[in-house]
Design goal:
13 helices; 5-stranded parallel beta sheet
């Protein structure tokens, strides 16, 4: 037989295992990490509000956090007007930071960003979203890279705590994105298709510098609740995330866009959910996508084995399949909604 390229290798598993179809979650869901300006059917999700609500109803989602306010004031206001105003009891819209203004404000940028966020809150912001360019691309007035724990931003974090609103923060991508793109990189195919997703050091900071700076930031502001996106930005190492949760009572994580990582380490993941049931929030980071929701429900609720995390024979984020965690009902209830009610909706 002639040799073939990896891209041509599409083995069909012969394993016979059960498949559990879940169309609705065991409990109503509070989606704490999602978007409405994500690609949907070739463009942004601009469905009429009634169609969007119908999809969420079908998925069993009662509340939805839209994190796109950080893409600019115009988009933030549009989402307030066209989404939140139409169903204020169901949608939460987070604001963001205009990093392009740092050169203009210099070392006073943190105070300026804090004042801008106060204005966003007055207009209806329910929290603050920090996107991953922070720590990787954002520079100060001297052109120097701004580190995640830069003290010049203390006023911003203090303000969110004073306003009793959470900061949902994303500071690093999968670890393999920081590794050389060679035959040992487990995300080779994904990075080969998206070379702009690679962050080699240099010129970018090493992955662990970002994570250590992140922990330093959260530790220094105990009066502010931080939600670490994507399982605290380190889903490959649940032990490290668990230690940060132990050390920082003001730290929470969401599970968005990391079901592929959680599902390939089912024993460690199940222990993690059981141990930190009060600190984990549900989210999918995939728009109002019915199939994605149902895959998450299957992972969290069933003991199904060896299935695709994205519905493809060759999954897009790594050549592995995943397993269900079969979480108990009391944990599911906390993860699906009670934690988000407390941390995002601020219901005590």
């Amino acid at each position: 037989m002639d040799e073939i390229y990896l891209s041509q290798y599409t083995p069909v598993p012969k394993l016979v295992v059960k498949e559990t179809i879940i169309t609705k979650p065991k409990f109503p869901v509070f989606d704490a990490h999602n978007h409405l300006a994500m690609p949907f059917g070739g463009g942004w999700d601009m469905r009429p509000i009634n169609e969007l609500l119908d999809t969420l109803d079908e998925a069993g989602v009662t509340h939805y956090v839209d994190l796109d306010g950080g893409w600019g004031e115009e988009l933030f206001q549009r989402h307030l007007d066209t989404i939140k105003a139409k169903a204020p009891e169901r949608f939460f819209v987070f604001g963001g930071v205009d990093w392009s203004q740092w050169p203009q404000h210099g070392d006073d940028f943190g105070e300026w960003a804090a004042s801008q966020f106060r204005k966003q809150v007055q207009r209806g912001a329910d929290g603050l979203k920090i996107w991953k360019p922070f720590g990787l691309h954002i520079t100060d007035q001297h052109g120097a890279l701004v580190r995640v724990n830069d003290p010049r931003l203390d006023a911003l974090w203090q303000t969110t705590g004073e306003l009793n609103l959470p900061v949902l923060i994303h500071v690093a991508d999968p670890v393999a994105f920081f590794d050389p793109l060679n035959a040992s990189n487990e995300r080779y195919e994904e990075l080969h298709a998206h070379p702009d997703w690679q962050f080699p050091s240099p010129p970018y900071p090493p992955f662990m510098q970002l994570m250590d700076d992140f922990k330093s930031l959260v530790s220094r502001h105990p009066g502010t609740d931080f939600i670490g996106a994507h399982v605290g930005c380190y889903s490959e190492n649940l032990g490290w995330v668990a230690q940060m949760l132990d050390d920082c009572p003001n730290f929470y994580v969401d599970i968005s866009a990391r079901i592929n990582e959680l599902g390939r380490q089912p024993y460690a993941s199940r222990r993690f959910f059981l141990d930190y049931a009060d600190r984990i929030l549900f989210g999918i980071d995939a728009g109002a996508n019915l199939d994605a929701y149902r895959t998450y429900y299957r992972v969290l609720e069933t003991d199904d084995e060896y299935f695709s995390y994205d519905g493809n024979l060759i999954p897009g984020q790594g050549r592995w399949n995943i397993y269900g965690l079969h979480l108990p009902d009391d944990v599911l209830l906390k993860v699906y909604r009670q934690n988000a009610e407390r941390v995002v909706a601020r219901q005590k």
